[in-house]
Amino acid sequence: MVDEQESTKTVLKLTLFWFAQNMVVPPLEEVFMRRIVAVVFFVFVVNQAQASQVWDIMQFQVQPGQAAAALQAFDELQSSDAGSSRTASVQFQSIYFNGISPATHAVVVLYPSRAEHERWRKSMAGSADFRKFQKAMRKVATPVAQSANSPIKGWGTLSSKDKAWSAIRLRVSNPAKLLQAMDTMLTSPEFKDFTGQVWLSAIDAGNVNHDGFASHIITIGHESFTEMEQWTDYANTTEAWSTYLRTISDVVDRVSTERVEHLRVYDHDMSIEDFQQN
To answer: Structure pTM?
Structure first.
């Protein structure tokens, strides 16, 4: 019963994304209709936020020579009562390649629900530990971008050992077609020995960054960039990969790709291994 409910939620979410991006109406009615769809989609997302796992990205531009200070501020917050008083997995990442974006580092937080995120955020209102963290970060870093994301489906082996990640932001006109293409490829015999994990997520808020508008993000994790390179070299030779590219060519535009590495991971009563893939 739970699997059927989750499947229904996924299909409805994908349908709303597709409808919002592809509907064709007369010019005089277009603004009004898009507002209706936006309201419907917003209500749906809010209703599901209470029960669905989520993850957030906050990117920063850290001043040259100040990476150690930013990491120390992060460590101190996560080790404090305030930072650890939540159910979440919190990552501090170094960004190595990300095109024109000035971001050098990111904090990524995985929550079991948006309700847990809201509870923790409100509890920080009077926290001296959190104010100390904010003050330290303002001295050495500038916020660049942030987004709120909802996992749609995951594949591969969930492992906290995966420290090397690729994040691919996409503009998708038919999310259901993308999901089916990914599922077909990643469950094919050619991918049975896949060494990492892959997630397809919807970007619920913060869709626009330095590279433009993105509706979805694919994240791929491996234990090392060497492992990532080896698997990528193999995958590029498979028919499953070629079929995937042909299938999504008319519904997906790649917005940006970046490589990141986890410098720290604090698991507060949960880890990425607790995330549900379906």
So the answer is: 0.82
Residue 35: both structure tokens together: 């507002």
Take residue 45 and report the two structure tokens written for it.
Answer: 């997302």
Tell me how crowded residue 81 is: count the other CB atoms within 10 A of its CB: 8
Question: What is the per-residue pLDDT across 161-220, written as a single tens digit (0 to 9) for each?
Answer: 999 999 999 999 999 999 999 999 999 999 999 999 999 999 999 998 887 899 999 999
Helix, strand or coil, per DSSP, at residue 8: helix
Judge contact between 7 and 15, C-beta under 8 A. Answer: no
Identify the sign of the CA torsion 182, 187, 189, 195: positive
Residue 6 half-sphere exposure toward CB, CA atoms < 13 A = 13
Gap between the Cα atoms of 12 and 6, Å rounded: 10
Residue type, 68: A
Phi/psi of residue 242, each to 5°? Answer: -60, -40
Residues 6+ apart with CB under 8 A from 278: 3, 6, 7, 153, 154
